Amino acid sequence: MSFSSVSHSLRRGRRVAWLLVCTLAAFVLTGACSGKEERFSPIPESDSGGLPGWDGSFPDVPVRDAEPSCPKAAKPYGTDPDFGESLPDILLLDCDGNTITVDEMRCESKLTLVSIGAGWCEPCQQEALVMEDLYNRYSSRGLNVVQFMYADAEGFLPGPEFCRTWRDSFTLSYPVYVDPQSNTLQFLSLGVTPVNMLLDKQGKVVWFAPGVLPEDFESILLGLM
User: Fold this and answer.
1) How much is the pTM?
2) Is the pLDDT of residue 66 over 90?
3) What is the per-residue burial (b if ≥16 Cβ within 10 Å, else e) of 23-35?
4) Residue 199: which H helix or E strand, with range?
Protein backbone atom coordinates (compact mmCIF):
# COMPACT_ATOMS: atom_id res chain seq x y z
CA MET A 1 0.00 0.00 0.00
CA SER A 2 1.36 3.42 -0.91
CA PHE A 3 1.76 6.14 1.66
CA SER A 4 -0.71 8.28 -0.30
CA SER A 5 -3.29 5.51 0.16
CA VAL A 6 -2.56 5.45 3.87
CA SER A 7 -2.88 9.22 3.93
CA HIS A 8 -6.28 8.91 2.24
CA SER A 9 -7.49 6.35 4.75
CA LEU A 10 -6.20 8.49 7.60
CA ARG A 11 -8.14 11.41 6.17
CA ARG A 12 -11.33 9.38 6.40
CA GLY A 13 -10.90 7.71 9.72
CA ARG A 14 -7.73 8.33 11.69
CA ARG A 15 -7.40 11.72 13.32
CA VAL A 16 -5.51 11.44 16.56
CA ALA A 17 -3.76 13.97 18.80
CA TRP A 18 -4.21 17.17 20.57
CA LEU A 19 -5.69 20.69 20.84
CA LEU A 20 -2.85 22.28 22.72
CA VAL A 21 -2.84 23.82 26.12
CA CYS A 22 0.82 24.75 26.43
CA THR A 23 2.47 26.26 29.46
CA LEU A 24 6.09 27.18 28.84
CA ALA A 25 8.11 27.60 32.02
CA ALA A 26 11.83 27.69 32.66
CA PHE A 27 13.41 24.45 31.59
CA VAL A 28 14.29 23.53 35.12
CA LEU A 29 10.59 23.23 35.92
CA THR A 30 8.48 20.29 34.82
CA GLY A 31 6.68 22.09 32.02
CA ALA A 32 4.86 20.23 29.28
CA CYS A 33 2.19 20.50 26.64
CA SER A 34 -1.05 18.64 27.17
CA GLY A 35 -4.24 18.21 25.25
CA LYS A 36 -7.37 16.08 25.04
CA GLU A 37 -9.05 16.83 21.73
CA GLU A 38 -8.19 14.62 18.76
CA ARG A 39 -6.41 16.67 16.16
CA PHE A 40 -4.17 14.56 13.94
CA SER A 41 -4.49 15.11 10.21
CA PRO A 42 -2.99 13.06 7.38
CA ILE A 43 0.62 13.71 6.50
CA PRO A 44 1.13 15.73 3.29
CA GLU A 45 2.25 13.32 0.59
CA SER A 46 5.28 15.43 -0.28
CA ASP A 47 6.75 14.79 3.17
CA SER A 48 5.74 11.17 3.61
CA GLY A 49 9.11 9.76 2.64
CA GLY A 50 7.63 6.26 2.53
CA LEU A 51 8.42 3.25 4.65
CA PRO A 52 10.29 0.60 2.63
CA GLY A 53 8.67 -2.78 3.10
CA TRP A 54 5.76 -1.40 5.11
CA ASP A 55 2.40 -2.97 4.19
CA GLY A 56 0.35 0.00 5.38
CA SER A 57 -0.94 -1.63 8.57
CA PHE A 58 -0.77 0.09 11.95
CA PRO A 59 0.17 -2.54 14.55
CA ASP A 60 0.28 -1.32 18.14
CA VAL A 61 3.85 -2.49 18.66
CA PRO A 62 5.71 -3.35 15.46
CA VAL A 63 8.57 -5.62 16.45
CA ARG A 64 11.16 -7.18 14.17
CA ASP A 65 14.08 -9.46 14.82
CA ALA A 66 17.15 -7.61 16.05
CA GLU A 67 20.64 -8.20 14.76
CA PRO A 68 22.49 -10.97 16.63
CA SER A 69 24.85 -8.41 18.16
CA CYS A 70 21.90 -6.48 19.59
CA PRO A 71 19.52 -8.67 21.60
CA LYS A 72 15.84 -7.82 21.49
CA ALA A 73 14.53 -6.08 24.60
CA ALA A 74 12.84 -8.46 27.02
CA LYS A 75 9.13 -8.33 27.81
CA PRO A 76 7.09 -6.92 29.44
CA TYR A 77 7.02 -3.82 27.27
CA GLY A 78 6.23 -0.45 28.79
CA THR A 79 7.84 2.43 30.62
CA ASP A 80 7.58 1.57 34.32
CA PRO A 81 11.06 0.97 35.78
CA ASP A 82 9.55 -0.53 38.95
CA PHE A 83 8.12 -3.40 36.90
CA GLY A 84 11.27 -3.90 34.83
CA GLU A 85 9.59 -2.87 31.61
CA SER A 86 11.38 -2.38 28.29
CA LEU A 87 10.86 -0.24 25.20
CA PRO A 88 9.70 -2.39 22.25
CA ASP A 89 11.52 -2.41 18.93
CA ILE A 90 9.50 0.35 17.25
CA LEU A 91 10.19 1.15 13.61
CA LEU A 92 11.10 4.79 12.89
CA LEU A 93 12.49 6.94 10.06
CA ASP A 94 15.65 9.00 10.21
CA CYS A 95 15.98 12.40 8.54
CA ASP A 96 17.07 10.78 5.27
CA GLY A 97 14.03 8.51 5.11
CA ASN A 98 15.86 5.35 6.19
CA THR A 99 14.22 2.94 8.62
CA ILE A 100 15.75 2.22 12.01
CA THR A 101 14.55 0.41 15.10
CA VAL A 102 14.89 1.18 18.78
CA ASP A 103 17.06 -1.91 19.25
CA GLU A 104 19.52 -0.69 16.62
CA MET A 105 19.92 2.73 18.20
CA ARG A 106 20.32 1.73 21.85
CA CYS A 107 22.51 -1.39 21.90
CA GLU A 108 25.82 0.42 21.30
CA SER A 109 25.56 2.77 24.30
CA LYS A 110 25.54 2.30 28.05
CA LEU A 111 22.48 4.55 28.38
CA THR A 112 20.13 6.09 25.83
CA LEU A 113 18.08 9.17 26.62
CA VAL A 114 14.85 9.03 24.61
CA SER A 115 12.64 12.09 24.33
CA ILE A 116 9.23 11.73 22.63
CA GLY A 117 7.98 15.08 21.36
CA ALA A 118 6.20 17.06 18.67
CA GLY A 119 7.01 20.07 16.55
CA TRP A 120 4.16 22.13 18.02
CA CYS A 121 5.38 21.65 21.59
CA GLU A 122 7.32 24.69 22.83
CA PRO A 123 8.87 22.87 25.82
CA CYS A 124 10.17 20.29 23.32
CA GLN A 125 11.99 23.11 21.54
CA GLN A 126 13.62 24.22 24.79
CA GLU A 127 14.48 20.64 25.66
CA ALA A 128 16.15 20.01 22.30
CA LEU A 129 18.87 22.51 23.22
CA VAL A 130 19.39 21.01 26.67
CA MET A 131 19.60 17.54 25.17
CA GLU A 132 22.23 18.79 22.74
CA ASP A 133 24.28 20.04 25.67
CA LEU A 134 23.92 16.70 27.47
CA TYR A 135 24.92 14.83 24.32
CA ASN A 136 28.03 16.95 23.83
CA ARG A 137 29.15 16.51 27.43
CA TYR A 138 28.29 12.87 28.09
CA SER A 139 28.40 10.99 24.78
CA SER A 140 32.06 10.16 25.38
CA ARG A 141 31.00 8.51 28.65
CA GLY A 142 28.46 6.22 27.05
CA LEU A 143 25.32 8.37 26.76
CA ASN A 144 23.30 8.22 23.56
CA VAL A 145 20.61 10.87 22.99
CA VAL A 146 17.72 10.49 20.55
CA GLN A 147 14.50 12.37 19.89
CA PHE A 148 11.33 10.74 18.52
CA MET A 149 8.89 13.17 16.88
CA TYR A 150 5.30 11.97 16.44
CA ALA A 151 3.91 15.20 14.91
CA ASP A 152 5.19 18.22 13.02
CA ALA A 153 4.62 21.88 13.87
CA GLU A 154 1.08 21.77 12.46
CA GLY A 155 0.07 18.56 14.21
CA PHE A 156 0.45 16.45 11.06
CA LEU A 157 2.20 13.11 10.94
CA PRO A 158 5.91 13.87 10.41
CA GLY A 159 8.17 12.86 7.54
CA PRO A 160 11.87 13.22 6.70
CA GLU A 161 11.48 16.83 5.56
CA PHE A 162 10.18 17.89 8.98
CA CYS A 163 12.89 15.78 10.62
CA ARG A 164 15.59 17.70 8.76
CA THR A 165 13.94 21.05 9.49
CA TRP A 166 13.76 20.30 13.21
CA ARG A 167 17.34 19.04 13.37
CA ASP A 168 18.78 21.94 11.38
CA SER A 169 16.73 24.63 13.15
CA PHE A 170 18.39 23.77 16.47
CA THR A 171 21.74 22.64 14.97
CA LEU A 172 21.39 19.25 16.62
CA SER A 173 24.19 16.73 16.42
CA TYR A 174 22.27 13.94 18.16
CA PRO A 175 19.91 11.79 16.04
CA VAL A 176 16.32 12.83 15.41
CA TYR A 177 13.74 10.31 14.20
CA VAL A 178 10.13 10.63 13.07
CA ASP A 179 7.27 8.26 13.80
CA PRO A 180 4.92 8.19 10.78
CA GLN A 181 3.00 5.22 12.23
CA SER A 182 2.22 7.04 15.53
CA ASN A 183 3.46 4.07 17.56
CA THR A 184 5.11 6.27 20.18
CA LEU A 185 1.69 7.71 21.10
CA GLN A 186 1.11 4.65 23.29
CA PHE A 187 3.64 6.12 25.73
CA LEU A 188 1.75 9.43 26.00
CA SER A 189 -1.28 8.08 27.87
CA LEU A 190 -1.00 10.89 30.38
CA GLY A 191 -1.64 13.43 27.62
CA VAL A 192 1.71 15.12 28.25
CA THR A 193 4.38 16.08 25.73
CA PRO A 194 7.33 15.61 25.93
CA VAL A 195 7.95 12.28 27.62
CA ASN A 196 11.48 11.29 28.59
CA MET A 197 13.10 7.99 29.53
CA LEU A 198 16.50 6.39 29.94
CA LEU A 199 17.17 2.95 28.47
CA ASP A 200 20.02 0.67 29.37
CA LYS A 201 21.93 -1.32 26.76
CA GLN A 202 19.38 -4.15 26.95
CA GLY A 203 16.45 -1.82 26.27
CA LYS A 204 15.15 -1.79 29.83
CA VAL A 205 13.60 1.47 31.01
CA VAL A 206 15.66 2.53 34.03
CA TRP A 207 14.11 6.00 34.42
CA PHE A 208 10.92 7.59 33.10
CA ALA A 209 9.20 10.95 33.52
CA PRO A 210 6.44 12.87 31.70
CA GLY A 211 7.20 16.50 30.94
CA VAL A 212 10.56 18.12 30.37
CA LEU A 213 13.70 16.87 32.06
CA PRO A 214 13.63 17.73 35.77
CA GLU A 215 16.07 20.02 37.50
CA ASP A 216 17.93 17.10 39.07
CA PHE A 217 18.18 15.06 35.87
CA GLU A 218 21.94 15.39 35.60
CA SER A 219 22.34 13.91 39.07
CA ILE A 220 20.00 11.07 38.08
CA LEU A 221 22.03 10.48 34.94
CA LEU A 222 25.35 10.42 36.74
CA GLY A 223 23.96 7.98 39.29
CA LEU A 224 23.10 5.54 36.51
CA MET A 225 26.26 5.86 34.43
Assistant:
1) 0.72
2) no
3) eeeebeeebbbbb
4) strand 195-200
